[in-house]
Design a protein that fits this description.
Order of helices and strands: HEEHEEHEEEHHHEHEEHEEHHHEE
Structural class: alpha+beta
Strand content: 15-25%
Number of helices: 11
Shape: elongated
Number of strands: 14
Distance between the termini: 21 Å
Helix content: 55-70%
């Protein structure tokens, strides 16, 4: 549980940081490219408005400004007469062919926009029409801007990767510090649960032994008192079951479950469990219908897997309507083994399904006393499945009933 909390803490923190860094990355890139584009348009605007006596001329700007406008935003311009014919071109600062210039001019004259871009040529353009109908079109090469944007994005990416690595380390450290009190409390709770279970087993065993002796010598006891002995024995057995379940969960939480892994024939194990549960099914007036493939093999702990199957079958028996069938299916699917247990009974509400595997949770409160149990069975089943690196889920509806599905 503590590891899960740490992972969630780290993932939430890293997700928020990643969102912020991505937002900064995008915003910085957009602002940088917009600034470069605006600088290009400003340089183009100075060029397009440079004219003498109504005729466009090469702009008269000082050397420093010229270097800034033309070197860092490569610009060329074309002068056209009132008929749209090219009068002159100025390409002192770029290397471009006449065909490209003609194509660019044609693209600009096709529309009425004063400024814009020609994507296929990677050019920005700005045009100005003089009073006599002549025109100057100024072009700026976008390749330089895009290269500058690429360099910025690459540097930002490197910085953000480094920042994420630093924040990851900080998140791991802060998660450890923040959850330390929780971890201590959880450890104390597990220790108490384990110790209490162990301490209770001894006196409970003595009580059960004494009750068994009394019951076996019923001829020495008044028959009117015998029912109290039997009731006490029944409740003691239930308490023993509860203690064993709590001890199992305590071992799971402390990673103390047996780790023996062997090849197990899950088909045979499931059939054995079905045969064991036949008497319970008979009492409930339900019947098992199995469809089990031969030799479904898994690697794991035999006793735990048998406990898992028993829990699912017992749960199906408890909550099945009378005169219905419990369907047990087992099959291989590529490298997975799939076990499904289906029963017909009251539909589990959607809001209860997510909580169904929580400890001590009971979906049907009205049937707790009638059916017995403590709400730990499905929690144990989930722990066993997780210990075998598997997955367990449940679906419940009126049409198909309730189905528990285990994938290992």
């Amino acid at each position: 549980m503590i590891k899960q909390l740490k992972r969630k803490f780290i993932m939430i923190t890293m997700s928020l940081i990643t969102v912020v860094l991505v937002a900064v990355f995008i915003a910085t890139s957009v602002i940088h490219y917009s600034r470069l584009t605006n600088d290009s348009y400003r340089a183009m605007d100075r060029v397009v408005m440079s004219k003498t006596n109504g005729a466009f001329q090469k702009p008269k700007i000082d050397e420093k400004e010229e270097r800034r406008d033309f070197q860092f935003a490569p610009i060329f311009f074309v002068d056209l007469d009132s008929d749209g014919s090219i009068v002159s071109t100025t390409t002192d600062y770029v290397n471009i062919t006449e065909d490209t210039i003609k194509t660019a001019v044609e693209e600009v004259t096709k529309n009425e926009n004063v400024r814009g871009s020609i994507s296929k040529l990677n050019l920005l353009y700005l045009r100005h029409i003089n009073n006599d109908g002549s025109m100057r079109i100024v072009f700026a090469d976008q390749i330089h801007n895009r290269e500058s944007l690429f360099i910025l994005m690459r540097n930002l990416l490197i910085v953000e990767i480094f920042a994420l690595a630093v924040f990851w380390g900080m998140s791991v450290y802060l998660a450890g510090v923040a959850l330390k009190p929780v971890e201590k409390a959880w450890a104390n709770e597990k220790q108490f649960l384990g110790d209490a279970s162990h301490e209770l087993k001894t006196p409970l065993t003595v009580i059960l032994t004494n009750l068994s002796i009394l019951e076996s010598n019923s001829n020495l006891i008044d028959k009117s008192q015998l029912k109290w002995i039997r009731n006490s024995n029944f409740e003691a057995m239930r308490m023993k079951e509860l203690i064993e379940q709590m001890l199992f969960l305590a071992k799971y939480d402390s990673y103390q479950l047996p780790t023996v892994a062997e090849e197990i024939n899950l088909s045979e194990l499931t059939m054995e469990s079905i045969l064991t549960m036949e008497s319970i099914a008979f009492e409930k007036n339900v019947e098992f219908k199995d469809k089990i493939e031969d030799d479904v093999m898994v690697t794991g702990n035999s006793s735990q897997l048998k406990q898992l199957v028993n829990i699912l079958l017992d749960n199906a028996c408890k909550y099945s309507d009378e005169k219905t069938d419990i369907k047990v299916n087992l099959k291989n699917d590529k490298d997975r083994s799939i076990l499904e247990v289906n029963n017909r009974g009251n539909v589990i509400p959607k809001e209860d399904i997510e909580k169904l595997f929580d400890r001590f949770y009971r979906s049907e409160k009205s049937r707790v006393r009638k059916e017995g149990g403590y709400g730990l069975g499905l929690s144990i089943a989930k722990s066993i499945v997780k210990a075998h690196n598997g997955k367990i889920d449940v679906c419940s509806n009126v049409e198909e009933g309730t189905t528990f599905r285990v994938v290992i």
